[in-house]
Design brief:
By secondary structure, the protein is mainly alpha-helical. The chain is built from 16 helices and three strands.
Length: about 400
C-alpha cells in the first residue's frame, strides 16, 4: 500500500503543460519578385479587363453572370475533392431536387448564395466589417440579439403603459372578481414569468458554437484582423496582384475554421472594390480548377502568387469564350421569335434559359406561370437541346 501511494504521489506531482497551436501568419514577400510576376501579372490584368469590358456592354450580362455563379460554386467543391453535379445544384437551388440533397450539395449551395450576396451588394461591402460578419453568419445573430434586447425594453414599457391605462381607464363600480379565480390567474402569471426568465437565462448563457465542432482556441476575430491588415498593405499594388496576395494570405492564416472557400470570393470582391472587375465577380475557383493539380501548391511563395495570377487569367479567358458562345446561341434562337404575338412566352423562356445552365419543365412552369405541359411545348418550339440524358427527369439548356 505504501509503495502504491508513493507512486500515485509521484505521478500526481508531475506538471502538465497544455500546448496550444500558434495562429498562422502571413507576410508579403519583401521585395516582391517582379521578375517572376511581371509576365503573369500583365496577362491577368489584361484578361480580367477584357472580360469586364465585354460584359459591361453585353445584352446577356445578367444571364451570363448568373450562370457563372453555378459553375464557380461547383468548382469550389471540386477543389476540395468533392464532386457536385451542375444540374443537381441548379435543381436544388430551384427547390426541385430529384433526390435527398447531400452534404456536398448543401455546401455548394452555400457558396452559391454567398457569391450572389457579394455580387448584388456594393463593391466594398464584402471587405467591410459588416460584410465579413454577415458572410460569417454573425451579423444575423448580433442583429437578433439587438432586436431581442429592444423587444424586452419595449415590452417593459408596454406593460407599464398597460398598468397605467388599467388604473386610469378602469370603469367605476366594477364588481370584484371571484377570489379563487383571481388567485388562479395570479398563479398562471407567476408561472409564465418564471418560464420567461428561465428561457432568457438559457438564451443569454448558451454558447454560440459547439466545442465538438469548433475549436475554442481558434481566434477568428484576431485572424480576420490579421488578414485585413495584409489586405490593407496591398493598396499600392495592382488589383490582380492584390487579389493573389489576399488569396494566399487567407490560405496561410485560415481565419475561418470551416469556410476555406470564402477566401477566393473575398479576393474576387477585392477586384471589384479596386475597380478591376466592375461589371462581374471573377470566378477564381473555376480558374484554379483549370490549373494542373501538381502546380497548384508550389513551395516557393513567388510561384504560388504566379499560380493565382494564372488562375485569374484562365478564368477570364474561359468566361470570355463562354460569353461569346452564349451570345451567338442567343442570336440564333432569337430568329425564332420573329412573327410571334406580343403575349408569347418564348422571349421570357429565352431569357430564362440563358440565366441557368439547365432548365426543367417544372422550373419553366414556376418561372413563367404556366403548366409543365405548356413548358414542354415552348421548349419544342424554341428548339432547345436536352442536356441531362437522365430518365427520371428531362432538362434542357444552352451549352
Amino acid at each position: 500500500m505504501t509503495e502504491s501511494k508513493a507512486v500515485l504521489a509521484s505521478v500526481s506531482s508531475v506538471s502538465i503543460k497544455v500546448i496550444r497551436t500558434l495562429a498562422s501568419s502571413y507576410k508579403i514577400p519583401d521585395p516582391l519578385p517582379w521578375a517572376q510576376l511581371a509576365g503573369p501579372l500583365a496577362a491577368a490584368e489584361d484578361a480580367v479587363a477584357r472580360l469586364d469590358e465585354r460584359l459591361a456592354k453585353s445584352p446577356i450580362r445578367d444571364g451570363a453572370i448568373s450562370r457563372t455563379h453555378f459553375t464557380d460554386a461547383c468548382a469550389s467543391l471540386w477543389l476540395d475533392g468533392e464532386l457536385v453535379h451542375l444540374d443537381d445544384l441548379v435543381l436544388h437551388d430551384a427547390g426541385m431536387d430529384v433526390r435527398a440533397p447531400t452534404h456536398e450539395l448543401t455546401r455548394a449551395h452555400a457558396v452559391l448564395r454567398a457569391r450572389r450576396r457579394i455580387a448584388e451588394a456594393k463593391p466594398d461591402w464584402a471587405l467591410s466589417a459588416t460584410g465579413l460578419a454577415s458572410l460569417r453568419g454573425r451579423g444575423e445573430r448580433e442583429q437578433e440579439t439587438g432586436n431581442r434586447k429592444e423587444g424586452e425594453g419595449s415590452l417593459e414599457v408596454d406593460k407599464d403603459a398597460e398598468r397605467e391605462e388599467m388604473s386610469l381607464e378602469g370603469p367605476l363600480g366594477v364588481l370584484e372578481a371571484d377570489p379563487h379565480l383571481a388567485s388562479a390567474f395570479a398563479a398562471v402569471d407567476a408561472a409564465n414569468a418564471r418560464t420567461e426568465r428561465r428561457l432568457a437565462d438559457e438564451t443569454r448563457f448558451r454558447p454560440e458554437r459547439d466545442s465538438l465542432i469548433y475549436d475554442p482556441d481558434w481566434d477568428e476575430g484576431g485572424r480576420l484582423d490579421h488578414w485585413r491588415a495584409v489586405v490593407d498593405q496591398t493598396r499600392g499594388l495592382p488589383p490582380t496582384l492584390a487579389g493573389a496576395i489576399a488569396t494566399e494570405a487567407w490560405g496561410e492564416i485560415e481565419p475561418l475554421e470551416h469556410t476555406p472557400w470564402l477566401g477566393r470570393l473575398l479576393a474576387a470582391a477585392l477586384l471589384r472594390d479596386r475597380g478591376k472587375a466592375r461589371s462581374h465577380l471573377p470566378c477564381l475557383h473555376a480558374g484554379l480548377k483549370s490549373i494542373p493539380r501538381e502546380r497548384r501548391r508550389p513551395r516557393d511563395a513567388a510561384a504560388r502568387l504566379v499560380v493565382q495570377l494564372e488562375a485569374m487569367t484562365a478564368a477570364a479567358e474561359s468566361g470570355r469564350k463562354d460569353h461569346d458562345r452564349w451570345l451567338m446561341t442567343r442570336n440564333l434562337l432569337a430568329r425564332k421569335l420573329t412573327g410571334r404575338r406580343a403575349t408569347s412566352n418564348l422571349p421570357a423562356l429565352l431569357d430564362y434559359v440563358l440565366s441557368r445552365p439547365i432548365v426543367s419543365a417544372g422550373m419553366i412552369a414556376a418561372e413563367l406561370g404556366i403548366t409543365p405541359r405548356a413548358a414542354q411545348n415552348l421548349v419544342a418550339e424554341l428548339g432547345l437541346r436536352e442536356a441531362t440524358g437522365r430518365g427520371r427527369y428531362r432538362a434542357w439548356g444552352v451549352l
